[in-house]
Every structure is written in C-alpha cells, then in structure tokens.
Design goal:
about 290 residues, alpha/beta, Arc Repressor Mutant, subunit A, D-Maltodextrin-Binding Protein, domain 2, seven-stranded mixed beta sheet, globular, LysR family transcriptional regulator, DNA-binding
Amino acid sequence: MELIALKTFEKVAKEGGILAAAKQMNTVQSNVTTRIQRLEEELGVKLFSRKGRGLELTRPGVILLEYAQQILQLERQAGMAVRLADKGAAEIKIGAMESFTATHLPQLLGALRESCPKLKPQVTATTTAELLRAVLEHHIDCAFVGGPISHPDLISVDVMSQELVLVKPKTVAAADNLVLFREGCVYRQKALQWSRDYQNNRYGLSELGTLEGILGCVAQGLGVTLMPRNVVELSIYRNSLTFETLPDEVAVVPTQFIRHRNTPRLKVIEALFDSLRWLPDRAEAV
C-alpha cells in the first residue's frame, strides 16, 4: 500500500465523497477514483459503498481507516523527528480548549519556540470532546483538555486545576439563561450540573462559540455562565462582570495533557513539557 493511496483513502472517508476529497487534495476526481480502485484491488475488498450522493465505509473500510490513520501519523512524526535531529523546521499539531488557548497556550508556545526555534506549531482550539476525537483519530499530536479523562488508548497527565465561578453582569439584572459553549465542552457539562443540582433547572440555554462572546453577552444581562476565574479576570469585559464561588464538586476542573498511547515519544513533546514549569513531576512519565 502506497502512502498516497492511504492519504487519499483517509480523505475520502473524512469528506464522504470523491469530489470533496479531490478539492481538499487539490487534484482531479479521476486521480482520487483511481487510487481508491487500486487500493481496493490490492486488498481484494470494497472499501466504500454508496449512501445517497455520498460514500460510506464498509466494514473492511472501517478497519483499514484505523490502521491508515496510525500509519500516516507515524509517517508524519518520523519526518518530524528526522528534521528536528538535523535542526530543521518541523511541525507539531497541538489542540487546546478555548480557555487554555486564551490564558496559557501563548506563553507555552513562546517557551517552546525558544527551545525549538524552527518548530512550526499548528494549534486547534475547540471543545474537549472534539479534541479527544482528534487525538484518538491521530489528526493532532496532543491536546490540553478538561478532565478527568480516562480512555484505554490515551495517556493523560494532570497539568493544572481550574476554578469555575458563576459569572454575572455587574450593573444589570441577569436573565434566567445560561450562556454556554456548544455540546462537548466540559464547562458546559459543569454548568448544566449546577443548574440541575442547585437551581432546579430554572435556566434556559443559549450557545455561543467564543469566550469573549459568552462573557460579552453576560455583561449585557443576557444570562449567566460558568467560567474559569482567571478567564474572567483577564477578559476585556471584566469591569462589567462579577462572579461568585461555587461548590467544589462543580468548581474544580482539572486541565489534562493527553496524547495517543501509540504515538512515539518525541523530543519535541519532551520540550513541550519542559516549557510547563508548573507541570507536576509525574508528567515525566509521559
């Protein structure tokens, strides 16, 4: 199996069709079709079946996808390791929650670039659920997520603990509405837990996609939210907000670093940990 065939197969599986995959790979449909056909002939199985106007994986296709993702991840990391050994440029794909991205990731990346000047970090900021899926499917190398996380295919290390607070507008009355991130955010789960256990589910629900968007809406009285204390203190809306402490079972959320158990240990990952001076000693086991 050629790497280009596996890359094409993975892209078709992700995009759900030949045309979309061809656009993503900047090639023509016939090239994509030919590579898939040759791969199917080599393996002696059908990898896709028709579903409406698109394609879906067959059972053999599902199995191959898991191996293809691991092979392609290993190929990319092998190239990274070789280029780093020669002090050349390399990439690392890091994922993080919005809150960690806003408050800690810039300093972390700055320290990382000092130890690896030619490193090219690629950052994905999204929900914990999406980051877990991205690491498990080998789309990113590692991620900072809201915990606790327990998965047989992941190695996780406690990085720090965040304190969630109840955030309200300072000068106007707040509507009975929770302003939260979309599904998959650990802070959203905590907020819904607080509403259920302490507020009899009296709050409605609004969803937004950014930290400042949420805090800006709360500042205008559109509702309340649960957010890490340091995020509120650093917000551009901090003078228009007030916050209250919460019970420990709601307030305490660990931030964890995760990577796939099958991902080879790379020096760049070690350099990443060296940049975290507040990381617990047990992080060395990663």
